[in-house]
Structure formats: C-alpha cells, structure tokens
C-alpha cells in the first residue's frame, strides 16, 4: 500500500539511493529546482530537509516560490528499510509560473518503481489533502510527451484545458476554474 510521509531525517541512505537512480534527470514534485546542484552528501540532505520544512509552514519561502507540502512516496515496507519510491508536492497557491506550467501538484516516481501504481495512489492521496486545504479545483500538469503521467492525471478526473510552454494543463475538482494566478 502506498503512503505519503514527510521527508525523514533518519533515511538519508534511501534519499541518496533514490536520487542516484534518477541519474541527474528531472525530479518533479521533489521541490528540487532544476537550477539546484544536486548532491548525494549529508549536508545537502540536511539543507533539503530544512528548506522543505520552511516551505511547508510558510516561514521562509524563497522568492518566486509558494508554501508547499512535500511528501515522500513509500510503501508499507518503509519502516523495515524499504526504498523511497518518489516525491510529490502540493503547492498551496499558484504563482504565474505554477499557473502556466507547474500546477498545484507535481510528482515523480523513480524509474525502478514506475508502472506499479505508485504515482496513481500518491496523486489520489494528494488530491484528498488538497481538498482538506480547500483547494478546488486543483491544477495538475505534465510534459506534452509524458503519456504515462497524462493517463494518470486523466484517470484521476483531470479535465484538459490547454498546453502552455510544452506542459499539458488539467483541472481536477468541482470549483470554478481560475483565470489567473493566486499570487503575483
């Protein structure tokens, strides 16, 4: 069974193993920005943990970012040393970039864990968390060529609106679709 957990400071090895498997490719939903220099060392991990905690409670959000809840995607064997399967992020608001490309929710599952339902389950759990936060509808995006993610979003009820800058934009929920970002 898939679960979402806050980043775990005791599981540096699982984090490093997961990052290494990506091989330097995109980490959507990890809250690691493309311009960040990834490192598999403990000081980087400690900084990652501090930044995610600050983003979640809104105390120290970097310019151009919004408060965000970052979670790790894990299975029931996590407490027994199971692997970190991936990342998912719930952004609490939409700035102009997120409104056009990033969405409220971003996620990524490590290559060895794909096609096993982890992203589908994690998205469902995060949509429920978004609803508890009062976010309705929720914007979820994927790259134009990412057919697997497109299918996951559509299966979760995503209604395609348009594509911008190579990103397909889907709204999930019953509320009125916004026409502009929440924050400047």
Please give a quick description of this structure.
With 184 residues, the chain is α+β, with helices and mostly antiparallel strands.
In percent, how helical is the residue content? 25-40%
Give the CATH architecture: 3-Layer(aba) Sandwich
- How many discrete domains? 1
Q: How would a textbook summarize the main sheet?
A: 4 strands, antiparallel
Strand residue percentage: 15-25%
Helix- and strand-based class? alpha+beta
Low-confidence stretches: none
Which shape, going by the Cα principal axes?
Answer: globular
Pattern of helices and strands: EHHEEHEHEHEE
Looking at this protein, list some descriptive labels.
Aminopeptidase; single chain; four-stranded antiparallel beta sheet; 5 helices; globular; 184 residues; alpha+beta; three-stranded antiparallel beta sheet
Would you write up a description of this structure?
The chain has helices at residues 12-22, 42-57, 96-102, 118-132, 147-155, and strands at residues 3-5, 68-74, 86-91, 105-109, 138-143, 159-164, 167-172. It has 184 residues and is of the alpha+beta class. The chain is globular. It has one domain: Aminopeptidase, CATH 3.40.630. Strand 6 and strand 7 (167-172) form a beta hairpin. It is built from 5 helices and 7 strands. The strands form 2 sheets. A 4-stranded antiparallel sheet has the order 1-2-3-4, with helices on both faces. A 3-stranded antiparallel sheet has the order 5-7-6, sandwiched between helices. Keywords: Transferase.
